[in-house]
Amino acid sequence: MAxxxxxxxxxxxxxxxxxxxxxFSSFTxxxxxxxxxxxxxxxxxxxxxxxxxxAGFRFVLLGGLKRIGDVFYFATPIIMTGLSVGFAFxxxxxNIGASGQYTMGMFFALYVGFMMDLPxxxxxxxxxxxxxxxxMIWGFIPGVFKxxxxxxxxxxxxxxxxxxxxxxxMMIQTNETMYISTMARTKYLPQSVQIPxxxxxxxxxxLGIIFAILIGIGLYMVLQKxxxxxxxxxxxxxxxxxxxxxxxxKTNIIITMVIAGGLAGLGGALAILAPSAxxxxxxxxEPINRIAAAGFNGIAVALLGSSHPIGIIFASIFISxxxxxGTLASLVGYKPEIIDVVIAVIxxxxxxxxxxxxxxxxxxxxxxxxxxxxxxxxxxxx
Amino acid sequence: xxxxxxLIQNMLPVAIPLLLVALGGMFSEVGGVINIALxxxxxxxxxxxALFVYIVQDSGLNPQTVLLLGMxxxxxxxxxYSLLLSFAAVTMKANQTxxxxxxxxxxxxxxxxxxxxxxxxDGITTKANFFIREIPVLGQIPIxxxxxxxxxxxTVMIGFLLLIIAYIVFYKTRFGLRLRACGEHxxxxxxxxxxxxxxxxxxxxxSGILGGIGGFFYSVGxxxxxxxxxxxxxxxxxxxxxxxxxxxxxxxxxxxxxxxxAFLRTLAYSVSLIPFLSNLGINQTYYKMxxxxxxxxxxxxxSEKSRAPKAEGIPYDKSQR
Lengths: 382, 321
Prior knowledge:
The structure holds 2 protein chains of 2 kinds. Chain A is mainly α. Chain A has a domain at 69-304. Chain A contains 15 helices and 2 strands. In chain A, helix 2 runs antiparallel to helix 14 (337-350), helix 4 crosses helix 12 (293-304) and helix 8 crosses helix 9 (227-237). The radius of gyration of chain A is 23 Å and the shape is globular. In chain A, 52% of the residues are buried. In chain B, helix 1 (2-30) packs parallel to helix 6 (154-172) and helix 10 crosses helix 11. Chain B has helices at residues 2-30, 38-56, 63-91, 96-118, 144-148, 154-172, 174-184, 186-191, 196-221, 236-246, 251-269, 275-280, 284-302, and strands at residues 123-124, 132-134, 150-152, 227-228. Chain B is mainly alpha-helical. Chain B has a single domain, classed as ABC transporter involved in vitamin B12 uptake, BtuC (Orthogonal Bundle). In chain B, 69% of the residues lie in helices and 3% in strands. In chain B, the strands form 2 sheets. In chain B, strands 1-4 form a two-stranded antiparallel ribbon. Chain A binds chain B through residues 44, 48, 94, 96, 145, 149-152, 154-156, 158-160, 162-163, 166-167, 169-170, 174, 290, 296, 299-300, 303, 335, 337-338, 340-341, 343-345, 347-348, 350-352, 355-356, and chain B through 36, 84, 88, 92-95, 97-99, 101-103, 105-106, 108-110, 112-113, 116-117, 230, 235, 238, 241-242, 245, 283, 285-286, 288-289, 292-293, 295-296, 299-300, 303-304, 306.
């Protein structure tokens, strides 16, 4: 009897060693959420136009593979906003303001691009740094409000999304060097301020994606190997315990928000400074009083990658991949907005996919050996 | 004096959606569920309300009847959408902020998708005319009649009626007391036999009703009966959250907070009509930022002694003590 028990226990530990790890459970949770989101998207396609649904869905799933350069190009800003949201999330802060920080970063980069005359080797570097600075400022404010005045960062960030958007739109519209009012967009940026292209034919993919991935790895190092990263995570787990242990929680909140803002700002800079595949043009910004979507996609990938920098990189590439696919699905008559719906559904499910998976695992365990008392052991998966 | 009349007449249709949605947020949060999804609920309600108006607009019904029926449709839509939040936040114990954010992201995309598929546009455009030039009898009262009962919408009166109902439910019924207990100390509430899950579902559903109606009233009073997937409800759901915090989760304070914000917003959009302000020559964008900046300033001063429900945002788990 006792022997028998021992054997089943050691067996269970073998499985648990893999399935119990948080990385594994968040990975399966992400897969589950993606799976459900995709099914939802397919159902919508079926309702909209049943005869074309399979062709359209194939575009969504595989279309991105044909435009791999564009997938990486469009993933770049999302990686940055995703890292921004994920980094703040590690500390228990919900940086919904990545949109505003992104817009600010973009404006600062634009400003350097148009208003400063620098040699072509360093112009784009200065513009990128300016973008980081712009985002940092816009992250600093919610940080201070949270740390010193105890204002919920969600509300502050949302308000500063609007303030930043109005401010940037106004400053662009009133600046004649930047803005063409007849076209309702910014002028083309000078060549010297555009980020060097990676040279893939017909695509705008540029050095930015390399920066984004390197920064993701760097953040992973910061979180895993530095005292600051440790304090940050400790504060995320239990703010009061961290404070009791002598960590400077308030300072760390501000630093975290400044870094998160800088990351999102860099995303904005990388997006606007990207080279254009069409010679003589550049990326442009249209000041139409709309909150940047990149910030919200950042939230999506941060959740999908469960705030892990490396996970966020892959999640961003995935989201960018299905977005490209969604654009291609318009070839058979589907609207690209379908992908935004799918992304929202994925986030909705990812919010409780881990719990759902744990429940599913328990159910499976029960089915496999219904005479064994298993439920106690699966709690770790939550 | 005409400027004052003008401002009040334009302010009230803006204040009512804020008021209703903030009240909705209050019901959800005093029950313990953070409702970031108000923006999405508003838009969902507005969309179905406007869709209803679009369908019946040629049937020759009285516009005010259409408005009342649209309100019912919007409130039902709001309940349905809020159930998605309740299910994730209460039953599945998911992170409430994340769930709310996903619900906010879903609906503008869904509206754009739907409208592009069926209307070939970015939203629903109705030709309904809900504007009331003058309410008989009441509109004749000197001063007050001109302020409140002329050039207005039926939404204003319904809004105040709903405020009174909300006040009574909140303070004077057993349900209101129990709901508040669930947001302050759910375990204590549970120990005296209150079903916390049910109460939280009810609280969030009420916020769905008020949010849906608020969204429809936004589309009636601010957008002339139209709904657009791009502009949505212009952050009113988020502003309503700020109004709710500013109002310290109390109905009457929320009324004053929403009037305050509506006043600032109306001012921002009518600068060119007020000689004094337009002579200052300040870019109109500054005025548009004013409600948001004011929110920040107000929150900075009120958050220290915030009376937020103690258990808000924490999923209730029976087995935890």
